[in-house]
Amino acid sequence: MAVLRKSPPADALTSSAGTGRPPLPARLRRDWQLLAMTIPAVGLLVVFHYVPTLGNVIAFQDYSPYDGITGSPWVGLYNFQWLLSDPEFWTALRNTVTITAFQLVFYFPIPIMLAILLDSVLSRRLRLFIQGIVYMPHFFSWVLVVALFQQILGGAGLLAQTLRQAGHEPWNVMTDPDAFIVLVTAQSVWKDAGWGTIIFLAALAAINTNLYEAAAVDGASRWRRLWHITLPGLRPVILLLLILRLGDALNVGFEQFFLQRDAVGAEAAEVLDTFVYWRTLMTGAWSYGAAAGLFKGLVGLILIVVANKVAHRFGEQGIYKRS
Amino acid sequence: MSTRPVWQERPTVFGLTLKTVVLTLIVLAMVYPLYVVVLTSLSTAATVTEAGGLVTLPGELSLDAYRELFGGGVVTRAVLVSTGVTVVGTALSLGLTIFAAYGLSRPGSVLHRPLLFLFLLTFLFTPGMIPSYLIVRELGLIDSYWSLILPTAVSAFNLVVMRAFFMSIPGEVLDSARIDGASDFRILWRIVLPMSKGVTAVIGLFYAVGYWNAFFNAVLYINDNSKWPLQLILRQYVQQGMNLVPNQRAVDTAAGYALPPNLAIKMAIIVVALVPVLLIYPFVQRHFTKGVIIGAVKG
C-alpha cells in the first residue's frame, strides 16, 4: 500500500512549505477535531493489536494466568526449543508450506485467466452478470462453503448419491486425506477466484488499446497480443499479489482448516494456526502457543520484507516504497 | 451488443463455442449448489425421500422447514444474536472508520504520520491467537457479545480504502467550507459523506458480511452455547450433522404437526445464513466495478 507516498500538494491551511511549520499550539488548535476523530479507532487498535503484540513476550516465559506477565518466570528460548523438537509442529509447518506451494501453482493463475476470459466478453451486460455471480461466493462464510461442499461431495452428498444410484462405490471426498489438498484448493477457487479477478480486470482496463491496435495492424495474432501486451500490462499487479501471497505463505486460511481437520485427520489437515489452537487453547499451554504464533509472525514478516526487496530489484513498486 | 474493435479479428466458431461452454460451466458451478440447497430446504419429506437425499428436480414444496426453524428455539435465537451483532458492529465500525479515515486524510496535521503508520503497520504483523485471546479474557469479554465486535471493529484495510477515497475529493471544495468557518465535523457530515455514498456502502457491506460470517472469534470467545451466533449453529447442525429436531419430536407429533425432514431443515439453516448476503449484495455490487476498492489496493 503506497499510502505513505509523497502527499498530494498541501493546501494553504496545512502547508508547511517555505514558512516552516506553525507552532504546535496553533496546529493543535487547527487540528484537534481531526485528532479527536482518529483517537477512538487508534484506541481500539492499541488495545486489540499492539497490546497483544507486546503480549507475545509470554513466549519467553512459563506464563500462567494467575501470576500474570509480571509474575511468571522467564524461561528464555525454552518454548522455541520445545517447538522445534515437536513432530506435530513440523507436520503443521510442512502441511502449511505444501498447501501454499500447491495453491501458488493451482490457485494463483486462475483469477488471471478468468479475468482475461471475462475481459474478452464483449457484451457489457453479460459480463457484468457473470461478474456478479462469480464475486458472490467471496461473501459466504467458510462454514457455509464447507457445508455446501459437504452437501455436494460428502458421504451423503450429491456426488455419492449419484454414484450410488448409478451402481458405483460412493467416494467421500470430504474425508479423504489424499484428496484434501485438492479439495481445499477447489474450495478456495470456488469462493475467492471470482473476487480475485477484480484487480486484474482493473489492470486490463488500464492497458492502452492503441497498443493492441498497432500490434494487430502489424499482423500480431490474438495470442501474440496476449503474450506481448496483455501479460506485460498485468505484470505489476501479478508481482504485487505474488509478494503479498509470499509474505502470507504461512497463512493458508484458518477457518477452512479448523472446520475440516476432524474429518480428514491432523496428519493431512493440521496447519500452523490450527496447531496453535489445538495444542494450546485446548491445553492451556499459553507460552508454547504464543511461541508458535510468534514464530509464524516473524517468519511472515521476514518473508514480506524479502519479497519486497525482490520486487524492488525487479524495478517494481512492491507493497511499500523503498525508503 | 457487440463492440468489437475494427482491428480485432472475428472469433472462430470453435473459439466462441469453447468460451461459451467454459463461462456457462463457471456460472453453473456457482449457482447449481445454491439451487439444490434452496430446493431441498423447500421440499416435503416425501420429495426428499423419493430423491434419496438432495432434491435436484422440483417436487412437492413446503415451508415446514422454515416454520420449524423460526418457531422459536436454537436457530431463531442464533439469528437474533447474529443480526444484533451485525447491526451494532457495522454501525460502530463504519462510524469509527469514517471518523478515522477523515481524521487521517489531511497530510501535515498533528500526528498524521505516526498515527497513519500505526494502522499501516498492522498489514505486516498480526499479534497471534494466544495474546489476542488473553487480552479479550483479561478485559472480561469472554461470553460477551462485545468480544465478537470490538477486536475486529476497525479494519486497517477498510480505513485505508476510505481514506484514499476522501483524499481524492478536490481540496477546493473543503477549503471553501473551511474558510466559511465550518468545523471538520460539519464538513465531514455535510460535504464529504454525501460525496462518498458508494464507498460507504461498499465498506459497510464488508463490515456487515464480516460480522455476519464471523465464526472463529465466536469459537474462541463464546463458550455459552445459548449465545452462539448463526455460524456456529450452522457448523454444529449442518457440517457436523447433529440433528436439530429429535428432542422436539414428541411435542411436535403430539401437536399433530407433520415433521419436516431433517435434511430440509439443515438446508434451510444454510439458506438462512445465506439470504442476508444475497439480499444486500446486488445493491452494493455495482460499486465494486467503479474502482472504489482497486484505487486503494493499488495505492
Automatic annotation (TrEMBL), chain A:
Main subcellular location: membrane
Its membrane topology: Multi-pass membrane protein
List, for all copies, the residue spans of the domain called ABC transmembrane type-1: 93-307
> What Gene3D superfamilies does this protein's entry cite?
MetI-like
Give start-end ranges for the coiled-coil region(s).
Answer: none
Per UniProt, which keywords does this protein have?
Cell membrane, Membrane, Transmembrane, Transmembrane helix, Transport
Region Disordered: start-end pairs: 1-24
Give a GO cellular-component term. Answer: plasma membrane
State the Gene Ontology BP annotations.
transmembrane transport
Q: Which family does it belong to?
A: Belongs to the binding-protein-dependent transport system permease family.
Name of the molecule in the record: Sugar ABC transporter permease
Q: Which organism is it from?
A: Herbidospora galbida
UniProtKB/TrEMBL annotation, chain B:
In its UniProt record, which GO terms are filed under biological process? Answer: transmembrane transport
For this protein, the record's InterPro entries field holds: MetI-like, MetI-like_sf
Residue ranges constituting the ABC transmembrane type-1 domain according to the UniProt record? 79-280
- Entry's localization field: Cell membrane
Kindly list the GO CC terms recorded for this protein: plasma membrane
Question: What membrane topology was assigned to this protein in its record?
Answer: Multi-pass membrane protein
Which Pfam family, giving just one, matches this sequence? BPD_transp_1
Q: Which residues are listed as membrane-spanning? A: 12-35, 78-103, 115-136, 148-166, 263-284
Question: Domain of life, per the record?
Answer: Bacteria
Keywords of the record: Cell membrane, Membrane, Transmembrane, Transmembrane helix, Transport
Provide the family line. Answer: Belongs to the binding-protein-dependent transport system permease family.
* Entry protein name: Carbohydrate ABC transporter permease
